[in-house]
Amino acid sequence: MSTLPPCPKCASEYTYEDGDQLVCPECAHEWSATAVAAPAEGERVIKDSVGNVLQDGDTVSVIKDLKVKGSSLVVKVGTKVKNIRLCDGDHDIDCKIDGIGAMKLKSEFVKKA
Question: Residue limits of the Protein YjdM N-terminal domain (predicted)?
Answer without folding.
Answer: 3-32
